[in-house]
Design goal:
9 strands; Rossmann fold; globular; PNMT methyltransferase; single chain
Amino acid sequence: LPPRADFSSEEFVVPWKLRCLAETFASGEIRGRTLIDVGSGPTIYQLLSACDHFEEIVATDYLAVNREELGRWARGEPGAFDWSPFIQHVCKIEGRGEPWQDKERRLRERLRRILPIDVHRPEPLGAPLRPPADALLSAFCLEAVSPDRAAFVRALAHVGNLLRPGGHALLLGALGESFYLAGAARLPVVPLRESDVREALAAAGFALRELRSYAMPAALRTGVDDVDGVFFAHAQK
């Protein structure tokens, strides 16, 4: 919701996240048969630029309620969340003049599997992904489900098992966040610094290609969390 998901300016955090993904996929380097999204939650915004570069997208989440919500959107059921403002914005920044409905239809076609996952297991899906994914994406998952930095590193290594050697990993996550609110629930988060992200990627067997960060402006500190900023990392296994 606004003010974070305000598409009137690139200075807001959601447009910043979408631009990071759009610019990285626009290079054409990250492509292949399968992309796996780790900890999708009930959201699809993180997949909008990815869907043009992969034959299949595998969404995952620990919670059945989130997998069910993704399924409702993928099937176009009445009452599913309306992601059209996000889709329209991604089409605008990609600059190809594509009708947003075409991108929506393409993502629905390519979102072929929605699977349960537990990133704290060495085999997060319960069995190896066959064939391994060509790319991995994860947005605001690992730091939110890990009790400490060591568990965050282990979870990163576990999800790396889903990726082929040489495959690309794209991570979006929170910096300096210790909690967020979901209704009345106050959920803990591992506070990360940029240096923690760099060290975790190296320890999990990834070579860092790019790391960007966004400092959360005072106007976007709405009380739903205590986040200092957001990071975007592109790494390679």
